Amino acid sequence: MKKKTKIDDGFNSELVETALFDGELEIPIIEDTNPPLPTKVIPFSKRTKSVDHEEYIVFYENDIEFGDVLVNPDKYIEEFKLFKGVISLDNSLYIDSPLTVQIGNVYKSRAIGHYFQTKGINVIPNCRWGDERSYTTSVLLEKFAFLGIPKHSIVAIGTYGCNQGKEEKHYLREGLIAMLDEIEPRCVIVYGSMSPKIFNEFKSRTTFIRFDDWITSRKRGAQHGYNEIR
Fold first, then answer.
1. Under DSSP, is residue 38 helix (H, G, I), strand (E, B) or coil?
2. Is the dihedral of CA 211, 212, 215, 221 positive or negative?
3. For residue 155, what are the contacts with CB-CB under 8 A and spacing of at least 6?
4. For the residues of 150-164, what is the DSSP string, one character each?
5. Whole-model pTM?
6. Measuring CA to CA, how many Å separate 175 from each of 7, 28, 88?
7. Which of 93, 131, 137, 203 is the most buried (most CB within 10 A)?
8. Closest CA relative to residue 206, chosen from 179, 228, 187, 226
9. Upper half-sphere CA count for residue 35 (Cβ side, 13 Å)
């Protein structure tokens, strides 16, 4: 009798064994545990350059840089515990990707973020959207970009490389409006620039804490602490 081959379906059910789920799409929830606000951040690929582990680890870089975290999150738990916390994975939501891929990337980010919480790591959910299909109900019945993030919680967004062209600026602004309406966050961590044309009108709606991206902060000689609280 042939031995059956065990097939890994990639679901990693152990990540969400204790999770609550949001919406019809059942996206895992990253709970609002009132984590401390970051005063410094550092990209995952640069984490060994930390001198005091006072940073939150962020994943605002090419997906390939943190691909191993997606495959084997357990490998990094003890290391991440040394830091102040993590901002959940910033899996790409390319507007030309099928919606199933985009939804799957949101699911993975929330699932791993929840899993890190169960291991005692401070986690702030990252919010990433693509085009209007992800942040409106123009196609689906749910704004899947915001599922799994509690209302009035702390959220993080990345603008690095996302506000250069006219189309990118349009989606950044419209998605930001949708996020503020849907989540009503008490604080928004911004990694990258904050164009006054996009952000100024929303200053009264929440507190923004901005950090330079890694390259800019190195040029300025900063220790990657926050640059502005608005």
1. coil
2. negative
3. 124, 125, 126, 127, 149, 179, 183, 185, 187, 188, 189
4. -TT-EEEEE-TTSSS
5. 0.91
6. 38, 21, 18
7. 93
8. 187
9. 27
Q: Dump pLDDT digits (tens) for 170-228.
A: 999 999 999 999 999 999 999 999 999 999 999 999 999 999 998 888 877 765 555 66
pLDDT reported for residue 7: 45
What are 126's strand-pairing partners?
Answer: 156
Radius of gyration of the chain measured on its C-alpha atoms: 17
Tokens of 165: 């062209």
128-171 pLDDT, tens digit per residue, is 999 999 999 999 999 999 999 999 999 999 998 666 778 999 99
DSSP code, position 10: S
What residue has token string 């679901």? 11
Residue with token string 């390319």:
94
Euclidean distance between CA atoms 114 and 134, whole angstroms: 21
Please check whether residue 189 is in contact with residue 209, taking contact to mean a CB–CB distance below 8 angstroms.
yes
